[in-house]
Amino acid sequence: MTLIQSLLAVPASAPRVVLLIEVLIEMASKDFIKGFRHELANRAFAFLAIERMAERFVGHEHGLFWKSYLDLEVFNRPHYALAARRWGQGTAPGMLTRLKALAVSSLPARLHGPLLRFIYRETLKYLEWLKKLRRQGPANARRFLEYMVEQEEVQLEMMRLALAGRYTEIASCADDFFCKYNGSVRLFDDGEAGKLR
Questions:
Q1: Which residues contact 167 (CB under 8 A, 6 or more apart)?
Q2: Cβ(93)–Cβ(106) under 8 Å?
Q3: DSSP 8-state symbol, 164
Q4: Fewer CB in a 10 Å sphere around the end CB: N or C, the chain?
Q5: pLDDT for 171-188, tens place per residue?
């Protein structure tokens, strides 16, 4: 719905200036939508690549990391799907995203360490970008935007633990996050529609 359509849909008795301010606060900017679309593609890439890595490393100590990371991506999916619907975005990965995920998840096992170090460095940069995106987001989505940044921080912590060889601690790191966002937390400020069930 455009700003004009939103204003026209309001009863004539509502103060127009206050209404205009409220509509502008709740609307997502084009820059935010573009950035969020990028984040959706990143989540789709991560799910596809990590799902394959988790399968490849079953029974190996690295598998503890990839399984917990996959659990996080599975947990993220309904939260992101809800946000995508609210902002008129799809969540299906494109062909380029699928190919990139296949390529990354097909690297030989002996490159696991260098791959994880590379992913860690890139995720540190990406986290800073996500924090900027959070600031651009609509005010009524503050909780979701915090969730978006926090799930990235959890990824980084799990990577730190894996790089330090502390694989047995990774699952509890993810579990703490899951307990915090167990589906009963409203991620949007506009009632039932924004609540996960």
A1: 61, 62, 64, 65, 161
A2: no
A3: T
A4: C
A5: 999 999 999 888 555 677
